[in-house]
Amino acid sequence: MIYNKIIESRGKKKLFALLLDPDKCNPDHLHKVLHIACQGKVSMLLVGGSLVNTDINTFISKVKAESQVPIVLFPGNAIQFANGADAILLLSLISGRNPDFLIGNHVIVSGAIKRSGVEVIPTGYLLIDGGVHTSVQYMSNTMPIPSSKIDIAVATALAGEQLGLKMIYLEAGSGAKFPVPIEMISAIRKEINIPIIVGGGLKSPEQINSAWDAGADMVVVGNAIENNVEFLSSFFQTK
Ligand code: 1GP
Question: What is the distance in A from the centroid of ligand 1 to the CA of 180?
């Protein structure tokens, strides 16, 4: 089970996830990325995006043909559910006040998820302002938490934990100018016990290491690898 692996790695190993947006992965790019991902340092592949047109199950089959790395859905909405995945981050966008992303999409897809047997990881999703208008902000029609409002982010993450969510995902948005502030990650880390995932705008090994040091259990990187596949191998060579 993916969640158990995340829990077991705590205190031993920091996790690194690659975000694959099926609309942005041409076969050549995908092949190169998976070749590097298979060398053992990528803990899981997240598949999804704010808006995806590609058929997710077909995409997953292609990924599985080239890699053994676990595939975890990171869905922007209910139609991104695919029963070929190993697990789904069942995201509730708790920083927002749009009922569709708090519970509406979940109701639509709950039966299909149950029938599939795909592992469900209930995850509180917090959108944090990353200095640009991101797709997730527009598509979810929610306002991000300002990056200076650490108290609001902490209270939101804590509420998510108290509601029984199993992980907190701090999201600056794909292509964010600034990643989630380090002070925010460490303040949340001090207040909650469940695993923390950090993604959005991570472009350098320094930023990734700082997020881990501040208390992130897993980081998620998308754009930096979409723009330069070599980022991945050069990053891991330094580890
Ligand atoms: C995952 O949305 C992010 O949380 C990915 O962001 O594309 O900026 O790495 P980047």
Answer: 11
